[in-house]
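can u do me a favor
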């Protein structure tokens, strides 16, 4: 496990006070490691989990040649090259779920249902709506089918002994269906990530508290809870922690001993209570960054070390700031910590931009960074090069089928309404300048995430 200093030494031009978004991604990719512990789950409980091993197909899918539609099966060699109509006698009906046992001679066909096994010697199906049928025969017009049409081949979806699913894939509804089509009742997945979260600050009210001057209700716990739950994490809500060294220390140690990762909001900006930063450094290996982005400039990242036992945690007091080596020796592993800004939108943006990809990597997922879509801007946007900006937008489909994007209003980092009315974030890259109406821009969509 590399220390933060070792990771920083390997990054060219690393400057914690002038981090680009690309710098942050490179740092986090080296900081976090995939989870090792796994469990076996029934398919109906595996949705959203990350597959912990490759799945090899134990059979051919489909297991036999079958009809792709309702129609009539026949030998395609009987079709006349010059395109004359073909008349065939109906000698039976093949139903889905069992093989038709008869034989078919030249000039004959079998009525067949979708999914039914193709009778021996037959390789072509003509849809029933394309023929003229009587009680005992059909007439196939010239040119409506060619030999081999509308037949699904054995193993064409997936051949036996071929890789069906890969380690690191998120188990989506489609992948669950694929596993079920192989007859698998269970899948081996990585254990869900446990993430502890708390807000910090004397100005934060919990729901149910009486309003008071200068205080605000805590929205961050609820947005972070939603983001983590959507990601499939086990969320440990530790509530609001006041600006008190003993309370903060107890919260950090409790979180480190119970969780794989810790997320906090507040306490990482210039001017915040000094003991919050001192505690994070004291209890682990933590760096404090200034990121060239808007919103969400301040961020802390690193590890809070686990203690060996509850008594070890209780024996460590906030008065021991000057001697952190003893505490760090209590545990040889740490919970990853993400200290996010306090402003509500900045919390969500930094989570989506950095924390979510890092947590997916910890979960063992292969594709951690969400792809961006391209859309046409409906507005002029002022932007200076030198920082990455994330703006709340609504993405819609234009009359020509292309995507277009407009702002949802006030972009202040404390304005949640414009975030609630958005379905994506406009991502203006570090070197990008002003955007004119009609310019193509990148968008991070919220669907299934926020």
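np, heres the sequence
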């Amino acid at each position: 496990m590399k220390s933060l200093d070792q990771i920083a030494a390997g990054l060219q031009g690393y400057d914690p006070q002038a981090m680009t978004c690309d710098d942050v991604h490179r740092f986090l990719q080296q900081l976090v490691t995939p989870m090792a512990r796994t469990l076996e789950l029934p398919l109906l409980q595996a949705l959203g989990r990350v597959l912990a091993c490759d799945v090899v197909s134990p059979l051919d899918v489909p297991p036999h040649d079958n009809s792709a539609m309702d129609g009539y099966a026949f030998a395609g060699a009987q079709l006349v090259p010059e395109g004359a109509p073909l008349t065939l006698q109906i000698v039976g009906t093949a139903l889905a779920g069992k093989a038709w046992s008869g034989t078919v001679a030249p000039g004959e066909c079998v009525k067949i249902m979708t999914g039914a096994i193709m009778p021996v010697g037959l390789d072509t199906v003509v849809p029933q709506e394309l023929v003229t049928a009587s009680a005992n025969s059909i007439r196939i017009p010239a040119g409506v089918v060619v030999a081999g049409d509308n037949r699904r081949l054995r193993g064409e979806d997936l051949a036996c002994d071929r890789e069906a699913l890969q380690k690191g894939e998120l188990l989506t509804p489609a992948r669950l269906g694929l596993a079920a089509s192989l007859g698998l009742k269970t899948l081996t997945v990585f254990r869900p990530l446990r993430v502890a979260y708390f807000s910090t600050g004397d100005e934060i009210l919990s729901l149910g508290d009486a309003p008071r001057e200068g205080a605000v209700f805590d929205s961050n716990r609820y947005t972070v809870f939603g983001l983590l739950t959507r990601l499939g994490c086990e969320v440990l809500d530790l509530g609001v922690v006041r600006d008190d060294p003993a309370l903060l220390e107890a919260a950090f140690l409790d979180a480190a001993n119970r969780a794989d990762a810790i997320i906090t909001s507040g306490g990482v900006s210039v001017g915040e209570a000094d003991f919050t930063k001192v505690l994070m450094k004291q209890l682990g290996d933590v760096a404090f960054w200034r990121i060239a982005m808007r919103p969400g400039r301040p961020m802390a990242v690193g590890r809070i070390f686990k203690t060996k036992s509850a008594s070890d945690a209780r024996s460590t007091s906030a008065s021991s700031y000057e001697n952190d080596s003893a505490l760090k020796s209590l545990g040889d592993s740490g919970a990853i910590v993400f200290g996010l800004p306090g402003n509500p939108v900045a919390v969500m943006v930094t989570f989506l931009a950095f924390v979510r990809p890092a947590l997916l990597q910890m979960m063992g997922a292969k594709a951690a960074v969400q792809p961006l879509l391209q859309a046409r801007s409906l507005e002029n946007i002022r932007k200076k090069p030198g920082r990455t900006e994330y703006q709340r937008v609504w993405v819609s489909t234009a009359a020509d089928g292309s995507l277009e994007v407009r702002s949802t209003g006030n972009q202040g980092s404390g304005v949640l309404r414009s975030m609630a009315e958005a379905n994506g974030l406009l991502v203006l890259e570090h070197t990008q300048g002003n955007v004119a109406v009609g310019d193509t821009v990148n968008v991070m969509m919220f669907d299934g995430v926020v």
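Residues 86 and 379 are 61 Å apart (CA to CA). hope that helps!!
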